[in-house]
Amino acid sequence: MEEIKNYINGTLAAPVTDHYLDNIEPATGKVYSKLPDSGADDVAQAVAAARQATAAWAAMPAEARAAIMTKIAGLIDRDREALARAESIDNGKPIALARTVDIPRAAANFRFYAAAIINASTAAHVSPDKGVNYTVREPVGIAGCISPWNLPLYLFTWKIAPALAAGNCVVAKPSEITPMTAFLLSRLCIEAGLPPGVLNIVHGLGPKVGQAIVAHPDIPAISFTGGTATGRHIATVAAPMFKKLSLELGGKNPNIIFADSNFEEALATTLRSSFANQGQICLCGSRIYVQQAIYATFLAAFTDKVKAMQVGDPLAEATQTGAVVSEAHMQKVLSYIKLATAEGGKIEAGGHQVKVEGRCANGYFIQPTLITGLDETCRTNQEEIFGPVVTVQPFETEEEVIALANSTNYGLSATVWTENLQRGHRVAAALKAGIVWVNCWLVRDLRTPFGGMKQSGVGREGGEEALNFFTEAKNICIKV
Ligand code: TXE
Question: Which residues pair with 288 in a beta bridge?
């Protein structure tokens, strides 16, 4: 059985304790590989390697750093099929989704920041009577990057790429639930000639390895994506140490469909924004609000499409809905479906675990589920479920739906469907969300700031924001 290794100081290494954890394939419920059960000693080795490599990596010309990052991107492209298959097996998502979204985006993350650092500019302010002020941005040194299981390689590289581009070394931890593609990335980094110690990947449990990274005194910046509860804990550790902190947390995103929307486009995209990756994307629109005039028509059409969705083996090309990521997560999602019924909800489609025939008979599959009849105050509409479960509610006026949309503690993203562009601009401006899509969903430009408001997070990733997060601005004033 394959044993995943840590990537420390340029080599693939067993954990100090030589103890491993089971890695389960969600589609079969079977252990298919092992991952290191690392701890603080492994993190200490990774930090020592990073410390050793930091000066040379920071001093390397941006073009040279960018060349190595571009090579890594090319190797990800070369191995797209193998990486997509690994991602699909590890996470349960349809292989077609991994091949078209996750893996290409991992390559894009490296390419984007390789280009960004070559073209980075800084500012100078000339005051003839005072002097010249100019700003330089210095790498923080060693960046701690901790990522989740829903978009394993996509989010892992979304943190690592800007940190490396800005001249930092990195100690990174992927989720223990989906470690495989991070391990395959280690091999590509070695092949690309990334200098030893520049990137170190330590596998293992969050409270052990993640905690050791967050608490390490030589790691001044932590970039985290995961649950709000975990983010809250990380903040209690990092804040007293005056660490820079970027928290990308949960969401409970509204999807607002006005009567003057393009019905077919809204319907087709809403199917994707509701159930892509089994609803395990922090940007999924899990609260759907439909204006009263089209509510019955939309609900009927949407229910038919949800019922027709194929749940199946993630490795089958035709599969649209694969397995959810773990047994524990499946039980969590099923418990929310039960709660929704207890809160008075009506299951219009789905609602149950699915028994898939053949090799996936013991996998973690849930029918795409559509629930009506709930108001915005219930837990089902307030808490992040993070599975293939959406609620649909009618609304009358713009003011009413803006209040509904803003009625949770989250504020990550929102979607608005209307052909009236003044309304689109007006509603988008009123929504408490870090990202608002009008007449589209998940259209991403990596130059834009990415992140949430309220309990969806602190700080922004993407574009210049990420490079600024992984650097310290220093202002120098020269008297003229
Ligand atoms: O995330 P965790 P989980 C939401 C979603 C999901 C919930 C929990 O609702 O059900 O979060 O998911 C590491 N110190 N999102 O359990 O636990 C952990 O090992 C340091 C939304 O997967 O937050 C993993 O690498 N690190 C989110 C990472 O944190 C710790 C995507 C995320 O794990 C740690 C994923 C600790 N004490 C889940 N405990 C999004 N916004 O996309 C855990 N970790």
Answer: 255, 392
